[in-house]
Amino acid sequence: MSEQSICPDCHGTGFVVVMQESGVSAAQPCRCRRDRLRDLRLRAAGIPRRYEHCTFASFNLLNDTMARALQLARKVVESFPGGEHGLLLSGPCGVGKTHLAVAALRELVEERGARGCFVEVNQLLRSLQDTFDRNAETAGRQILEPILGADVLLLDDIGVTRGTPWARETLGLIINERYNASALTLLTTNLPAAGSGEGESLADRLGVRLASRLAEMCWVVELQGGDFRRTIKSADFRS
To answer: Considering the entire predicted model, what is its pTM?
Structure first.
């Protein structure tokens, strides 16, 4: 460790000595140690590099649905631990669902000390299928354990493709385990949560029973608007 990297407060020990009101000195964790632990938790959450910048402050409030979603995302964070609801964000591509869900996950990990886990649903299912194709049951358990045990789980793009019975069963296992443990879950989907008779819904993809359970676990918000990513790209092209 170089001199420049050594904390000037604790001199690399991770603890500082403070004088209490009783006049007795005591050791307590240094802020550098807390910062290191926070950074370790954030890396362990597995947030993709594309979303590392996502915060509540950088979320664009373009309409009332986005303002409502932000309000509920903040409420989820403020209620942790002990809050009764997660968050299910639905809406078309590019309206900021993943941005907002990641912002909530970051706040919970960095400020509330939660053990977080970001999961892209299709990638998860592919990884699990690979282990089963190789008859690697132990590897499959190793993939699922941090997902089931996380304080906060973000399931990104749930229902994005039509699931097989096996995929439904696997997602059902994860969601039911989270439900039974009263564990906080954040989800995003491009599908409407409930059926309207016009096109497929999340209930069509997952089954009515599982979709109903998600509605019980989470506040459900449908974000409306155009594809913000395309708008930004078009503006960059014109400038």
So the answer is: 0.81
